[in-house]
Specification:
CATH class of the largest domain: Alpha Beta
Radius of gyration: 28 Å
Order of helices and strands: EEEEEHEEHEHEEEHHHEEHHHHEEHEE
Strand content: 15-25%
Largest sheet: 5 strands, mixed
Length: about 500
Amino acid sequence: MRANAIHFINDAGTLLRFDGVQLTPLKSIKERDAACCAVVPLAALRTHGVRIDKEISPEKLEIQTEMSMYEEAGLNAEVAYKIASLPIDLPAAGERYIESYAVESGYLRERFGKTVSKISHLDWIVPAFLRYEALYAFEKIERRNDLFIYLGETESYAVMFKDGHYISHRSIMNLTELAQKVDVDLPTLRTMLVQKGLESERYEPADFLKMSTLQQELSKVAERIAHAISHKRGIFGFDHVDRFYLDFDGSAIPGFLEIFANYGFDAAKYLTLPQLEGIERAQHDDALCALYLLGIVQGRCHGANLSIFERRPPFYQTHGGLFFATLAASALLALAYPLYALYTLEGLEERSMQLEAQVSTMESMGKKLQEKLKSVREERDALVLEERRIHEQIESFALLVDALSAQRVTTRQRQVMMEDINAALARYKLSSKLMECNATQSCRVQLISEYQKRDDIAKFMKQLLERGYRHVATREIRRDEHIYESMIEVAR
């Protein structure tokens, strides 16, 4: 039988009861069987994705994903983490995509420890950005190819769904960072976004500088999201987005979602996030998270559980309960069968010695492995720092070039070139691993195709030549048994 309600802890630490319709504050837990749940923000997580063979066993899958989190996602071997994974189906037969999440155990104790001391457990802790799956699971919207854009004070992100199933997310600039760029406070920024948005005619001449900065920064956000969609196109096998949903306090931002038409998504619908019936606007974020968690408990939604606060089993199922039960049985047996009791105790002592020897061996091996792992991590951390320094230098130069060339005419020319490239990519269902544009004159696009479909790359080049580009050429070709990669240079 499905659970009818859950207990939910919101960001303020308030304990709420949610039955799928209403959120009700609670002072204490009366329904002991109801699941206790919470969410963690994207900012608290380390995420990483890998392709895995579908036939791999659960034990090997757990080991492989945990190793990839330490080796590729940069987890610190000296810090305790809770790691959970979410499997995502891929079009390719025999493969699936595993997205893993890690959160520091210390963060969970600091965030939920006070509440858990009162309720004793937390059955589910999940990433908050996965909550939009509830809209499909509870039939609030139809299953389509959708992109949700959440704008919050401390974190913002885009979340992609294919046919109503989660496939990817991307962190973007939050409202606090945007307010600093525009040089206004948060309340003023919210008012500007809701009342004026990106439409120039709504602004007074004195505010044109703020309007221009706002347009530039949100255009960069849209471009970042468009690049993410292009990258995921080849991995997850989708060639269009049906709807763009904006999750911004239930409000629209005039002219914002329409930017995506410049990147080949002119056929999509631009909507605000639908509101849950009977829920006040101030409670909507909590209610959507709670609805998603209710869906997990009921088996409607998929979840990655990051909880370290397990529910305590009944006393008779604990080690102490088993110990007392065993002791009582041993006492009865000792009274009736002294020889049998003696034999049993000797066997237990021998087994205990064996277990102690095994534990000692495992501890010794674990210590050696930890020392080796620490050494490898130090080497990797040094390389990561050097890479980050170089990356920051590159970003600094890129930002400087963008600032010097950020004029309306050149911006439109660049958008037209990217729109033509994205249209050609979508027409021939090609995926781009890399797309780099030099101002308004040229672009480098690294294409990925199945080997037997490599002729589509020539068709892609022909379409761009027909669009009037003076130079479309292949500079580098790489292939393996199944994949064909080609670096294409496009110039006006």
